[in-house]
Specification:
This protein is of the alpha/beta class. The protein folds into two domains: 241 residues, Thiolase/Chalcone synthase (Peroxisomal Thiolase, Chain A, domain 1); 149 residues, Peroxisomal Thiolase, Chain A, domain 1 (3-Layer(aba) Sandwich). It is built from twelve helices and 16 strands. The longest helix is centred in the N-terminal third of the chain and has 16 residues.
Length: 402
């Protein structure tokens, strides 16, 4: 990238805290945001837990008259966007709104509204359908509602790229900024955890369940037996460096490089993850080295082992010394969880600690890396490698630096 792109604002609504300060504290303390789900009935399933957002009051961010018209994902995204803009000390006005854009990653948002919309049709007939539910049944509802509520009139898009969804949105945002399509872009990810989504993952046997030692997200651990679903929203404010200088704001960090690749070789599935990492770190200059790897490990046998193999291939001489952890152990997995992970990375750059992989007890010989486990590590971090892995053949790596 010819001109630097930097992170100037962070807004988070997560299961371990609302707002960047609570979120950062939760990361440092290794808080477990995963608990028994009370928001919907889990009695039909063997799985009972999820990373549901707690302590969120939409009225603090959205006028009461508008809340009932918005789906849950849109509420989370609007709140995170307001927090990010406030953190960036950025006001959207009639003169600046056209230079500010929004590009979000969103997975299965709209499912709850879609189910409610069609359930009423089936049970009571089409004349009883609630028309207010329909506009929020599509994945881009959150992006559209944020832009309407905040007055954003620049570039506007929603990206869905399996478990690389938020990363793909951020990469698109960086490309748009580099091409001069905007001066500022809000980007990140938002997901809501609904009963219908939980039901689908359970039916596919992808979720962790209690086999006598508890139901939990435990990336890289030998006893892991599936993912735990989570939800939340995390928005980053990205700006061109010269735009930031004109505003006199201190950035959290810089996007140094990134890659987004495809591949589905059944014999060497880790090779394309390795290729994504090598593309991202290939441009490191000035003696830079990777200080920490933000792992994509999500507590599934396949993804965790693939990532470990790829890291060993990309760093053959020093993989054993590189600290790595996965905050999905605290938050759970979601399609756009990369937004919260990137928000964590930006905070880590300035706070001088590495968050842990919690619930880690038994090493897996297929995941023999230098994991930070169960409690955070105090360490100055200048460069972070962020990995994202979609099991169906999309891989992303983003390199951040001070």
């Amino acid at each position: 990238m010819d001109e630097g792109i930097v992170i100037t604002g962070i807004g988070v609504v997560s299961s371990i805290g609302v707002g960047k300060d609570q979120f950062c504290l939760g990361l440092r303390e290794g808080s477990d945001g995963i608990s028994e789900i009370s928001e919907f009935d889990t009695s039909p399933f063997r799985e009972k837990k999820g990373g549901m957002v707690k302590g969120f009051n939409a009225r603090e961010f959205i006028p009461i008259s508008k809340i009932r018209k918005l789906d849950r994902a849109s509420q989370l995204a609007i709140a995170a966007s307001r927090l990010a803009l406030e953190d960036a000390k950025l006001a959207i006005t009639s003169s600046t709104c056209f230079g500010i854009g929004i590009i979000l990653g969103s997975g299965f948002c709209g499912l709850a509204n879609s189910e409610a919309f069609h359930r009423r049709q089936v049970l009571r007939g089409f004349l009883e359908m609630n028309p207010m539910l329909f506009p929020n049944t599509v994945p881009n509802a959150a992006t559209g509602n944020v832009s309407i509520e905040l007055g954003i009139k620049g570039v506007n898009s929603t990206v869905v790229q399996s478990h690389c969804t938020a990363e793909a949105a951020m990469i698109m945002a960086c490309d748009m900024l580099a091409e001069g399509k905007a001066e500022v872009i809000l980007t990140g990810g938002v997901d809501e955890l609904s009963e219908i989504l939980f039901r689908a993952y359970s039916a596919l046997n992808l979720l962790s369940h209690d086999r006598g030692d508890g139901e939990m997200s435990r990336p890289y651990d030998l006893s892991r037996n599936g993912i735990v679903l989570g939800e939340g929203a995390a928005i980053l404010v990205l700006e061109k460096e010269r735009h930031v200088l004109s505003r006199g704001v201190e950035p959290y960090g810089r996007i140094l490089s990134y890659s987004l690749v495809g591949g589905s070789d059944p014999d060497i599935p880790w090779r394309d993850i390795e290729r994504a990492i090598e593309l991202a770190i290939g441009g490191m200059q000035g003696g830079r080295k990777v200080d920490y790897i933000s792992g994509a490990g999500n507590s599934s046998k396949r993804v965790d082992a693939m990532e470990a193999r790829a890291i060993k291939g990309a760093f053959p001489s020093d993989y054993h010394a590189l600290p790595i952890s996965s905050i999905k152990s605290m938050l759970g997995e979601s399609i756009a969880s990369g937004g919260m992970r990137m928000a964590a990375n930006a905070l880590i750059l300035g706070e001088g600690f590495i968050p842990p992989t919690i619930h880690y007890q038994t090493p897996d010989p297929h995941c023999d890396l230098n994991y930070v486990v169960n409690s955070s590590m105090e360490r100055e971090t200048k460069t972070i490698l962020h990995n994202a892995i979609s099991p169906d053949g999309t891989y992303a790596s983003i390199l951040l630096g001070r």
